[in-house]
Specification:
Layout: E1 8-12, E2 18-23, E3 28-31, E4 36-39, E5 43-49, H1 61-73, E6 79-85, E7 91-96, E8 101-107, E9 114-117, E10 122-126, E11 130-135, H2 139-144, E12 150-155, E13 159-165, E14 168-173, E15 178-182, E16 186-189, E17 194-199, H3 203-208, E18 214-219, E19 222-227, H4 231-240, H5 257-262
Antiparallel strand pairs: 1-2, 2-7, 3-6, 3-10, 4-7, 5-6, 8-13, 9-12, 9-16, 10-13, 11-12, 14-19, 15-18, 16-19, 17-18
């Protein structure tokens, strides 16, 4: 039995995907502003403050403000859009990926109730799923992690959908098993994963190897989802060949320009 709304879905496409959510009467899905693609007649769209997870429990204004404020810290919008089937029979609403890559369905009930994801990864979810923040436990992980020290935390027992760039790989790490990953390639992981940063030894490796100064060190047990094409890497390549676009937006670590050097994007 789920506390969050039970939704069905189907993902279409290969490299430029969209997810079609099927809603029974009175079921609701929440989505990021700008992710909406299309919907059947009979679905009501409403802009809500925060993620809507406090509303079923009658949360007060302070709870809603706190929930929405957490989303601002991970670079998300204060408001989300709720799509509710107010008609008769099943209705469908679709959400499109923002760039080439894959949409990853995450059943939080089967994944222990919590997933840690990179900022901006969230696309949509069943109503009741909480979209909050997860601070890295170690200061070094936050400063040199490539994507900042704040990540998204998805809590609940419903379905949530995140988006990643390029090809996406899901790996199951056993207890004590270690995986070293480019910091920008981490999409999401279960909270049982110990996430840390390791310095790349050898000055020639980071000066002339084209990579950053640090690896993401992931230690099992748990699941991790990895992407082959981080959006920051794609953006840096585009701007490298388009100098007229001017100074690029810093999408690396919280160190700004220095972070681009540290995470391998210092062109």
């Amino acid at each position: 039995m789920r506390n969050n709304h039970e939704i069905d879905y189907k993902i279409y496409g290969e490299e430029l995907q969209f997810v079609e959510i099927e809603l029974d009467p009175n079921e609701t899905v929440i989505g990021e502003p700008g992710g909406f693609m299309m919907m059947d007649d009979g679905i009501q769209m409403e802009t809500i403050f925060g993620d809507g997870s406090q509303q079923p429990q009658g949360g007060g204004l302070l709870d809603k403000l706190f929930s929405a404020g957490k989303r601002v810290l991970v670079g998300e919008n204060l408001f989300m859009t709720a799509f509710t089937n107010v008609g008769q029979g099943k209705k469908k609403v679709s959400f499109a990926a923002p760039y080439t890559g894959k949409i990853i369905p995450l059943d939080l009930q089967q994944l222990g109730g919590t997933i840690i994801a990179q900022k901006d990864a969230f696309l949509c979810a069943a109503k009741g799923v909480s979209i909050g923040i997860a601070f890295q436990k170690r200061l070094g992980t936050g400063i040199f992690g490539g994507e900042g020290f704040i990540m998204e935390k998805l809590d609940g027992d419903g379905l949530a959908f995140v988006h990643a760039g390029g090809y996406v790989m899901e790996k199951e790490l056993q207890a004590g098993e270690i995986l070293k990953v480019d910091t920008g390639c981490v999409v999401a992981f279960t909270p049982t994963i110990d996430f840390d940063i390791e310095f790349i030894r050898g000055i020639k490796n980071w000066m002339f190897g084209g990579e950053g100064l640090f690896f993401a060190l992931m230690r099992g047990p748990g699941k991790v989802w990895l992407q082959s094409l981080p959006i920051s890497r794609l953006a840096s390549r585009i701007i490298q060949y388009s100098p007229q676009l001017g100074r690029r937006r810093e999408e690396g670590s919280i160190l700004g320009g220095l972070g681009n050097l540290l995470d391998g994007d210092g062109y």
